Amino acid sequence: MKKGQIGEGIVERIDFPNKGIINIDDTKIIVKNGLTGQKVRFAINKKRKGKCEGRLLEVLEKSPLESREAVCKNFGSCGGCTYQTISYEEQLRLKENQVKKLIDEVCEDYVFEGIKGSPIEWGYRNKMEFSFGDEVKDGPLALGLHKKGSFHDIVTTSDCKIVDNDYNLILTCVLNYFTELGTSFYRKLSHTGYLRHLLVRRGTKTGEILVNLVTSTQENVDLKPLTDKLLALDLQGKLVGILHTNNDSLADVVQADSMEILYGQGYIYEELLGLRFKISTFSFFQTNSLGAEVLYSTAREYVGETKDKLIFDLYSGTGTIAQILAPIAKKVIGVEIVEEAVEAAKVNAELNGLKNCEFIAGDVLKMIDTIEERPDLIVLDPPRDGIHPKALDKIIDYGVDRIVYISCKPTSLARDLVILQEKGYKVEKACAVDMFPGTVHVETVVLMSRKEK
Ligand SMILES: C[S@@+](CC[C@H](N)C(=O)[O-])C[C@H]1O[C@@H](n2cnc3c(N)ncnc32)[C@H](O)[C@@H]1O
């Protein structure tokens, strides 16, 4: 097949995260977002080393997996969900097979314990980052998520089902307010305009809601009437804070040059496994609270006996894992690169009355050289790209008996497992945990033990 050629084929399987695989005459074609069993038309847009990538043009025949109607009116165009038309049971089977295949390719003789589902399929998110923009060039103001595969176009997600309806009421209120005012949105190419993002956090357990409007400083808009409108909404949860963040950064990232509190406070509380966490607007916190309880319980079970042990929680974020392990360990040391997250971890440990946690700010690669104590056990929960090879070498050099690796990207995990096995670790068991129903994402937990020397 040549670049630009149009073809048709049946998707044989989906490789993580969303790669539909089609084989035609010994050529493997990857068509993103195709579902197993679908007959699709595609256009070849890349060809390299016998591998082709095709862009999905049209679904000619539905997949037998698609046993139900989508529940959201934006399904298909919105970049958020991919699997809404597949039953949750089938989604779990699909993700389980993807994770198992990736680990089977690099590990032998380990126990794969299947997949654990999210306790709730809908309304599970405790945080959303919405973008302002338009759905079509020069169209009306939109507020929501990026269109599937698009860098610019935004779909208004006022009907989103993976969040509590409070999010939809807040989004609609904010969108209506700025539509009536005719306020401009920030254009990423020309760097002009005012409205950038709307961040909403809502504690699943506590119902506390924090709203954060992120804008440039290019206009001066009166936000008092918006604050009053938000406070007048009939929400199920409790709006505890409304913030306005200024961000003039050229990059399309949500960050703060300065922040003002328009109402209430700048944080919410959330509860996980009986512990309480104070979460500020930008700190990392797992986005599915009930799913996080399943993930962390699995990690705690995999860590095994911790009595009198010193545990390193590397890539510790706001210190959730460290604090869940601290009550059953001698001490836990967390290392995290985001200083604000480390400060939050310290506050949270105090809030939870834990005296045996220490949190260190910095890059794992550098910081582990500065820690004098040596761990007995290590928990790893790195970002999507996995662990820097040099940091992995240092982690392996500790020679601890057991390592638990939590991963949000099983392809990076598989790469790191190859190195861990080459350097003396054996994969004992693994399982997948689904924290993101409807979407392509999945978490994996792996227990490794040091081979006898
Ligand atoms: C997947 S999150 C895990 C957070 C935490 N374990 C939790 O469950 O809430 C990965 C964390 O690694 C941090 N991180 C990324 N690169 C890092 C590095 N080189 N050194 C230390 N932390 C890093 C990120 O800021 C993020 O908080």
From TrEMBL:
Superkingdom of origin organism: Bacteria
Keyword Methyltransferase in record: yes
Database matches in InterPro entries: MeTrfase_TrmA_AS, NA-bd_OB-fold, SAM-dependent_MTases_sf, U5_MeTrfase_fam
GO biological processes: RNA methylation; RNA processing
Keyword Transferase: yes
Gene3D superfamilies reported for this sequence: 2.40.50.1070, Nucleic acid-binding proteins (2.40.50.140), Vaccinia Virus protein VP39 (3.40.50.150)
Keywords carried by this UniProt record: Methyltransferase, S-adenosyl-L-methionine, Transferase
Any one Pfam family match given in the protein's UniProt record, by short name: tRNA_U5-meth_tr
Protein name: 23S rRNA (Uracil-5-)-methyltransferase RumA
Higher taxonomy: Bacteria, Bacillati, Bacillota, Clostridia, Lachnospirales
